[in-house]
DNA sequence: GTCTATACTTCGATAGAC
DNA sequence: GTCTATCGAAGTATAGAC
């Protein structure tokens, strides 16, 4: 079989990922994407119809990949607590492979999902749905205390997104924040894993009234 | 005393907050800021020298305000656990008063702090430093288990930022994620408070080896 | 301090040959 | 599928009168 040799679209998507992550949708320049993909602008507009469609195509692909990884973790045989460990480590690994991912997510959250059509929104929803299902299993089995699955998703992964998206800043910020030794980036995953085990654990104590 | 009547700079900063939060630094348009502030462009460039300096002025102001609030909480007389409750509720209240704040933070994290000079970075650092000091007190007193203050800061407040910055999206997303009732936005703060109490609590159990 | 008018640049997108 | 050349719109910033 002759390969279709459709290497351009993939190269364009890879270049777009870097550009959109680094500058945001509004700040992204189509010229830069084309140049980085070693393709001229007309070629880019031939494959993708517009800047918007290029962006949405990229996001759908990334959300789908991330959701698949979370789904795989949920389908495996393991205790709920161990699955939570794997969700956190799995997302960190995914970000390690696709460094642009958390930046784009943060920007899209700030944009209020302005560039997401229904299809892309559905692809995004698959990520918290997969993770939420794992949490729900733990609640039902009694391993976890009662908690809203979507809330747990945010408590679990927002710090990972936040921390790994801005690691260069934190390295610059750390000396201004604490006199303790600079934080080893990789240890944050372990920190979050240990903490979330307790966060989600059933706690018979603590009346824990809300405080203003 | 005659009032200086310097109402323009404040109106410009207020308009800039909305514009920068809604579109990001690159997407923000100076014309829109000027129009929203009911001031012409030349006036804007008269008070602030450039788009960059306007942005940094805004950020310094917001970071300083947020840090002051955290510092007040830390200085009050209360148990470490209760202070954590107040930090979470206090940040949520601050965001409620300045809805643009978490959006700008998320964007700046994604930008890798590209627009932050040394002075603005120092203002930003005061926020995690204040919160980190509270955490450190709890660790020292034995109320909390051993934890890096900066890590705890992220685990505590990143979900709050993330959730409150994107509340319109989550409302649209929730039905696609869970068949359970839609999550009441205000309850997230209580969820995070209760969870973080356990997250930070001293846990003699759990060998908790890292999982890949 | 405040305005109008505009210089200069860069953007997203397309035309049309090959 | 791929290219060069370019259009019209929109951007940041400034000049200069008041």
Quick rundown:
2 copies of one chain form a homodimer. With 212 residues, chain A is mainly α.
Structural key phrases:
homodimer, 212 residues, mainly alpha, 10 helices, disordered N terminus, disordered C terminus, DNA-binding
Structure description:
Chain A has helices at 7-27, 30-36, 41-47, 51-75, 80-97, 100-110, 118-141, 149-165, 167-177, 187-200. Chain A is built from 10 helices and no strands. Chain A has 212 residues and is mostly helical. The longest helix of chain A has 25 residues, at 51-75. The first copy, chain A, is globular, with a radius of gyration of 20 Å. Helices cover 73% and strands 0% of the residues of chain A. Mean pLDDT of chain A is 92; it is low at 1-5 and 206-210. Chains A and B meet through helix 1, helix 5, helix 6, helix 7 and helix 8 of A and helix 1, helix 5, helix 6, helix 7 and helix 8 of B.
Oligomer: homodimer
The pair of chains with the biggest contact is: A-B, 77 and 77 residues
Unreliable sequence segments of chain A = 1-5, 206-210
Tell me what portion of residues of chain A adopts beta-strand conformation: under 5%
Secondary-structure element order of chain A, N to C: HHHHHHHHHH
Describe the global form of chain A: globular
Mean pLDDT of chain A equals 92
Structural class of chain A: mainly alpha
Task: Count the E strands of chain A.
Answer: 0
Main sheet summary of chain A: none
Ends of chain A: how far apart?
Answer: 67 Å
| Number of H- or I-type helical stretches of chain A | 10
Proportion of residues in helical segments of chain A: over 70%
**Spatial extent as radius of gyration of chain A:** 20 Å
């Amino acid at each position: 079989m002759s390969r279709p040799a459709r290497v351009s679209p993939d190269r364009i998507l890879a270049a777009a990922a870097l550009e959109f992550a680094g500058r945001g949708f509004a700040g992204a320049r189509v010229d830069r994407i084309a140049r980085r993909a070693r393709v001229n602008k007309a070629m880019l507009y031939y494959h993708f119809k517009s800047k918007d469609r290029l962006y949405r195509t990229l996001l759908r692909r990334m959300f789908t990949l991330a959701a698949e990884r979370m789904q795989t973790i949920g389908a495996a045989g393991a205790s709920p607590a161990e699955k939570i460990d794997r969700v956190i480590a799995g997302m960190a690994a995914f970000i390690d492979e696709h460094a642009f991912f958390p930046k784009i997510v943060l920007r899209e959250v700030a944009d209020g999902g302005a560039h997401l059509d229904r299809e892309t929104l559905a692809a995004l929803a698959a990520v918290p749905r997969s993770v939420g299902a794992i949490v729900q299993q733990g609640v039902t089995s009694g391993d976890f205390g009662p908690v809203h699955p979507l809330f747990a998703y945010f408590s679990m992964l927002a710090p990972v997104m936040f921390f790994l998206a801005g690691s260069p800043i934190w390295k610059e910020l750390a000396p201004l924040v604490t006199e303790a030794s600079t934080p080893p980036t990789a240890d944050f995953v372990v920190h979050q894993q240990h903490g979330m085990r307790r966060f989600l654990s059933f706690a018979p104590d603590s009346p824990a009234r809300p405080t203003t």
